Amino acid sequence: MIITVKYFAQLRDRMKRDEDVIELSPPATPGDVLASLIPDTDERTRLLSCLQVAINHTYQSMQTPLHAGDELVFIPPVAGG
Amino acid sequence: MSHHAITTLPLPIDALERELDDPECGACVSFIGKVRNHQDGRAVLRLDYEAYPEMATTLFEIIAEEAIQKFKVHHVRIVHRVGALAIGDVAVWVGVAAAHRGEAFSACRYTIDEVKHRAPIWKKEYYADGHAEWVTCQHDDEDAPL
């Protein structure tokens, strides 16, 4: 299945791009996607402690199952308002 | 401008305040968030705000509806600016119209607090010492009860 992953703020700085279109074999979760994007365990552990997950504009979790056509965003710590 | 919005343009405060007017509402309360020139003792020169716009406006709708239901106010509107902002620029405007002032103040406070905690919006500060950082820690001292 194909999903889109979008990057914002410090995560876009880290990934050096705005988005990826990724092919996944189901079942797959945001946690699986993060593991494929950030292979370094220490860095991934740090990120897991501060990133939230959004799927199709709604907060979800790292364990939420993904579906074909989903838009996945790892949300760095927010600072609006 | 649609009801809740993310915009790159300077916020039209006068027009937003006028559009809050409703003959059924005796109380209008608005909050204006502006860029200040310091953070944690460091001099700030300017800011970049960035949003995940589709999700941010979705959350504005959700938060506004929560405030309306919770405080029984008539109207809640949220507009947030993104892009490069200078010291003194208005970053966010929250407007509430209600029958009476008690619920108007409460709903406005609730709305801006929820926007700060939940909206996918990020802020990069540029300091006088030459550094720039994405803000990772929202200050909760501003949330102290009145």
Structural commentary:
The complex is a heterodimer of chains A (81) and B (146). Chain A is α+β, with helices and mostly antiparallel strands and 81 residues long. Helices cover 28% and strands 27% of the residues of chain A. Chain A has three helices and five strands. Chain A has a five-stranded mixed β-sheet with strand order 2-1-5-3-4, with no helix packed on it. In chain A, strand 3 and strand 4 form a beta hairpin. The longest helix of chain A has 8 residues. The mean pLDDT of chain A is 96. Chain B is an alpha+beta fold. Helix content of chain B is 30%, strand content 36%. In chain B, strands 3, 4, 6, 8 and 9 form a five-stranded antiparallel β-sheet that branches. In chain B, helix 2 packs antiparallel against helix 3. Chain B is elongated and about 50 Å long. The mean pLDDT of chain B is 93. Classes of the chains: A alpha+beta (81), B alpha+beta (146). At the A-B interface, helix 1 of A face strand 4, helix 2, helix 3 and strand 8 of B.
The SSE order of chain A reads EHEHHEEE
What is the end-to-end distance of chain A? 36 Å
Note the run of SSEs of chain B as H and E.
EHEEEHEEEHEE
Shape of chain B: elongated
Assembly context of the chains: heterodimer
Strand residue content of chain A: 25-35%
Going by helix content, strand content and strand pairing, the class of chain B is: alpha+beta
Main sheet attributes: strand count, strand direction, barrel closure of chain B: 5 strands, antiparallel
Taking Cα atoms only, what radius of gyration of chain B do you get, to the nearest Å?
16 Å
Contiguous low-pLDDT stretches of chain A (5 residues minimum) are none
